[in-house]
Amino acid sequence: MDTKIQEQWLKEMEEKSRAKQSQFIGNISSKLRRPMVTEAPQHPFRGSPDFWNVYEWNEQERIERFTENFQSVGGHVERLSSMEDVQQFVTNKAIELGAKYIIRQNEPELAALELEQRLTEAKISVWNTDAEENWKARSAEADIGVVLVDHAAAYTSSMVVLSSKDKGRSVSLLPTVLIAIIPLDRLKTRLGEVMATFDEGGRESLPAGIHFISGPSRSSDIENDLTIGVHGPGIVYALLVG
């Protein structure tokens, strides 16, 4: 087909398509007895209002609100004093659940838990430490995934986990049970405080993935039939440490 003829044909097709769209929207507007909107609405305000940008809870309020909000969606929260307490909690929970396969991020803080020495009956895998391993499959068969949370927001009870070569998303997404460790200095009031750190770092410093976890996986179909654990762990423990 000649280029000019093709361009003319495409132009005519676009005009017909826009005419159909206009007629379709016009019919809806007529039935609603409202004028059809032809211009984009004005947005005089951008971002959060000033009062929200300065809204902040103290540490105890952040702990209480995060706990309340996280538990309200079916999550579990434990308040622990130290990483030694975390070590004991993870060990006891793994024994209680009879965990045979555990996977964790390749983080120094998690290595210090010495799960390999404490859970000799379980197979402990450390993300991306073996180039021959199928790490997604390893994560999918894991009974427990253990991660160190990068950021958290009390207002929405959201945990933010970043992806990298040592911290694959599958560790928090695929195991049956997730144990997420939140140092208290990483727990903020608002999610906006967390997002600001990414803006400040710029595009070049963005991680491979930014994942928000606000409780166990919850899925609901068109009939509001709620199912837990379809798109992620059905059991989530958030450990507030410090």
Please explain how this structure is put together:
This protein is of the alpha/beta class and about 240 residues long. It has helices at about 5-30, 50-55, 60-70, 85-95, 110, 115-120, 135-140, 170-175, 190-200; strands spanning about 75-80, 100-105, 125, 145-150, 150-155, 160-165, 175-185, 185-190, 210-215, 220, 225-230, 235-240. The strands form 3 sheets. The chain has a 6-stranded parallel sheet with strand order 1-12-7-4-2-3, sandwiched between helices. It contains 9 helices and 12 strands. About 40% of the residues lie in helices and about 20% in strands. The longest helix has 30 residues, at about 5-30. A hairpin with a 5-residue loop joins strand 10 and strand 11 (about 225-230). The model has no long low-confidence stretch (mean pLDDT about 90).
Write the layout of secondary structure elements.
Elements: H1 3-32, H2 50-53, H3 59-72, E1 76-80, H4 83-97, E2 101-104, H5 108-111, H6 115-118, E3 123-126, H7 135-140, E4 144-148, E5 151-153, E6 158-163, H8 170-173, E7 177-183, E8 187-188, H9 191-201, E9 209-213, E10 218-220, E11 226-228, E12 235-241
Features:
12 strands; six-stranded parallel β-sheet; four-stranded mixed β-sheet; 38% helix; alpha/beta; 242 residues
Provide a compact summary of the structure.
With 242 residues, this protein is of the alpha/beta class.
- The percentage of residues in β strands lies in 15-25%
Could you give the count of β-strands? Answer: 12
Q: Please give the count of helices.
A: 9
Estimated helix fraction: 25-40%
Low-pLDDT runs: none
Q: Any idea what the shape is?
A: extended
Distance between the termini: 71 Å
Rg computed from alpha carbons, rounded to a whole number of angstroms: 25 Å
Q: What structural class do the secondary elements suggest? A: alpha/beta
Largest sheet: 6 strands, parallel
Mean pLDDT across residues: 91
Main-sheet strand order equals 1-12-7-4-2-3
N-to-C order of helices and strands: HHHEHEHHEHEEEHEEHEEEE
